[in-house]
Amino acid sequence: MILNLMNRSGLIVKNNSHFNLLDWLYMDDAAAEIFSFEESVKNWIAIEIALAETQNQLGLVPDDVLVKIQGLKGFQIKDTDQFFSASVNVGYPIVELLKELNDSLEPSAQGFLHLGATTQDIMDTALAMQVKKCGELIEERIIELGDVLVKIITEHSESIMPGRTHAQHAVPITFGFKISIFLSELSRHLERIRKANHDSGSISLFGAGGTSAGYGKDSAKIRTEVAKKLNLNNVNVPWHVSRDRFIQSATAAAMIATTLTRLAREIIDLSRTEILEVAEPGGWHKGASSTMPQKRNPVMSESIIGLAITATGNAAMMFRAGEAGHERAAGEWQLEWKVLPETLVSTASALKIAVEMCSGLTVNVENMKANLNKDDGLIMAEALMIGLAPKVGRERAHDLVYSAVGIVRSEHIDLLAALKRVSKGILTDSDFTEISTDSYLGEATSICKISCKEWLAGKIS
Hints:
- There is one protein chain.
- It contains 17 helices and four strands.
- It has helices at about 20-25, 30-35, 35-55, 65-70, 80-90, 95-105, 120-155, 175-200, 220-230, 245-270, 300-320, 330-360, 365-370, 380-390, 395-410, 415-420, 445-460, and strands at about 160-165, 170-175, 280, 360-365.
- α3 (about 35-55) crosses α9 and α5 (about 80-90) packs across α6.
């Protein structure tokens, strides 16, 4: 779990925490809080109480003892340094937590916590609660971003701009079409994260070796009832070493992060001085340089990329965490404590910034139009080739237009004029039809409508 994150006030949970500028500046506090030390302890205690309540129903915990155990709700670690030292010594925090919980109870109520459970039961179940909760926050952020993109697509479904392949002008597209592709990805991400949230939110009460022997003859009933109390899925096969559900959550988050990286990179590239088709939200000193007063750096996109790459890198390590052997892990589990929360928190943080960035995005339609003609009309080369293909065949049409392109680049004349020159004796003027950029958009505008329709349908499903 993330126990050493620094919050905005500079408070450090552990004295030896390192300073992480990326998280300090851009971390989503709501997501980080889910994996905080305090929240982790609260969840561990909630599981112990739910277990005792269920065992009380089965006659394993006396009524008067249960009342005292229920009073542990809200219990806080008083000496975090002592708690930390004891946890380092054991290797896990649950032994020390149980000691402190029992010490706070009357002698007659001691010894009824953790009956049949093992440390990993408690920690895995708590982590399942946290992964599900953070995944649901990610789901909310995806919906927020998708709704913003729908507005952009609707407004700019016919805003014509250069489509670029291999970073060069290709064919005309619309800005709404470009954003539709991102929205379509978000629709699929929404479906994936919902599935991951459901699957990862599964209880793990199977005892030391996964057989549930320590829980006694009513082990299945105990697991079922505790799952209900904690709003988790009840599963009947142990998963101490089966980390596929958590890998699924990490992978779903990493795929979202990859889309965000691509979106941020697109904004950075389109905001270049020589392109200037979009711009991040501005403001006094927003993205300012310490030495170049004219600069307005795309810092929101840059932070998204930093956070998103952190998420994808950490998610990759989750596959190593899934390589645990026998019935309990020997090291792989510890890796998961760090990389799984950081994957989810980094993704949630990147999403939050993306929502803010896209909500205030400036779209320069005039520059988009101007950029269409920066290469003397070469962006219409394919359109002219397709128009000539029925007359001379596709290959010959390609060669004619290719030759005309060379003339345009050397003489900076109109593409159609150059094409007529190289086609003299092969084609007549009547064979040529001038094609405008807005008449060669294919399905661009209809794709805008389709992506928005699919998004709205998927959002409410």
